[in-house]
Amino acid sequence: MRAWMVMTVVAVCLLLGNAGLAGAQPAAAAPEEFVFYGLRFGMSPEEVRKVYTLNAAGTEAVEPGHGMRSLQLTFDYRNRLSEIRAAYERPAEGLREAGLRQALKERFIQPIPARWRTVTASLDESFNRAAITLVLVSQQMRQETIEHFRDEYLRGME
Known about the structure:
Blueprint: H1 2-23, H2 45-49, E1 60-61, E2 70-75, E3 81-89, H3 94-109, H4 111-115, E4 119-124, E5 131-138, H5 139-156
Antiparallel strand pairs: 1-2, 2-3, 3-5, 4-5
């Protein structure tokens, strides 16, 4: 009789243990950080300089490569990278221009916001007539900066 009770207790423990494991969810992986050719939002100018040579003002990469004509960087009020503007030379021929636009959409505009919800990706075709510019913005950093300046203006209005 004792052996039967021991076997029952062992069986119940095994069942409960397996049920607990079957219902357990694996730990969620940390979200993948957004990186654009070595640049991450929140980098300081010094960190950016480890990836790219910058102009004297520290706002544009010298010879950015990767098909880019220019790479302009915007830093927020804390001096952290918050916006990336990658310009690609606009081809003179219409179908080549359409091909470039489509390539930028497929490579960046469509997949980036789908994968990183806090990053917006858009094309600016009106600012510079000689280029099509890919604009990448950290929405969180943009909102924090707007709120910072709003508060600054509100204090000045008291």
